[in-house]
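Protein modeling request. Please complete all fields; requests missing the sequence field cannot be processed.
Requester role: graduate student
Desired output: 3D structure, token encoding
Chains: 1
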Amino acid sequence: MRINIVFTIIIFFTISAINAQSNFMLQRMADDDQNSRIGGITDWDLLRKQDSIRRIKVLEMMRDNKLNTAKDYYNAGIIFHHGNDTISSEMVVTCFKRAFYKDSTLNRWWYAAAVDRNLMRKGKPQIYGTQHITVKDTSGKAVTRLYDLDTTKITDEERSLHFVPSLAELKKELK
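Delivered output (175 residues):
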């Protein structure tokens, strides 16, 4: 009887350990995503096609419950990050939120940036202050500025938690 209990416990922990391992294929896809951007992009059409295929594969993995660890959700967020629509930007927020819930030691800036980019894609002001845009000034010169910011939604304490500058620092940066 005692042997059966010990054997059952060993099997339980072995299965748990196997299920808790990060998805190797997803890691390779995230690495490919990042490596395809190193050294300058020469064929944007090809890159967009590869990005699209990666996003479809991640959706299939999610459907099949193949994302288990914080690293899996982080890698999925990295892949969805390069989508150009609000569906992708919603998926980035969802994936990073899940990743940081599972592992609070991950860099939370990525989540703040994902939230801001998602709001920006929806035509709404960002809340953390991570997104910049390039516009032309009155003389026609291209200048970079902070995308519209709603300063009422997030406190400086929350910004700090997400490694984002305070409102005072953001305003100073704008000058």
